[in-house]
Amino acid sequence: MMFRIPTITKNLLIINLIAFLATIVLELRGIDLKDIGGLHFFMASDFHLYQLVTYLFLHANFMHILSNMFGLWMFGCVIENVWGPKKFLFYYISCGIGAGLLQEIAQLGSFYMTITAQDPSVSFGEIFAIGQQLSHQLNAWTTIGASGAVYAVILAFGMSFPNERLFIIPFPFPIKAKWFVLFYVAIEFFSALGSSGDGVAHTAHLGGMLFGFLMIRYWNRHPSSGFDRGRGQQFFENLKRNFEQRQRQHQQNNNNHMHAERGSSKEDDREFNARKRQNQEEIDAILDKIRKSGYDSLTKEEKKKLFDASNQR
Known about the structure:
This protein has 313 residues and is mostly helical. Helix content is 70%, strand content 3%.
């Protein structure tokens, strides 16, 4: 139950996949969906405001969409379960738009430096007039992909569960979520400064994380706005109820099985019920510990017991 993909994350995965398949099919018919829905530079003739949203659902190739959707699935499931679907969707789309806006600013700076390199006398105000003259050529600057929003989701996981250990390729050892996020920030920052021309919108990645960071900080300081620990506590309360429901069902099934067997005794029933009560008390204590100190505070034995209990049918 707890590992089921929540509604918004599942729908985002489906929409991205449909958009990717539509891009391939329409491309065979001479229609470039990436050009229509991709985010153009705002001085380009093909720029439209709706592209700040549509670009999030378009990808260049299979590896591009695979890496983004894997990150969305891996971290989005957890964050949506903790925050709830409405807040998660608002965060995802807002950070995606923020990533696009920062990418636009970065492209403006790049355009200014390109023009002044050819003519140092050009002022910043004249750049917009030059942009209008070159609007058709500027259509080549197009950004696509959900990376900015996905990086924001990764940041949210790191800020929500900073000490949670992750096994990430190529690291041969577990790394805490907070260091994993900082590692990604450093890579994207230096890649953006390097201007490597690798075709990756590193500024958009940083923009998504920046908007996500500011949004989470605001929610932390203004709990009444909706970002509070109550949602996380509700998540663990639901988890506890699921455990209890499974335990009751499992106990009922075992009781029925034991009564059906020949030679069963009341003493066996009492021992079985006592053992089940003890196991339930241990699970309750583990869930209480998670609510108070976080999942990372559990011992290996407690994590194993929680995992075993979640897999019982």
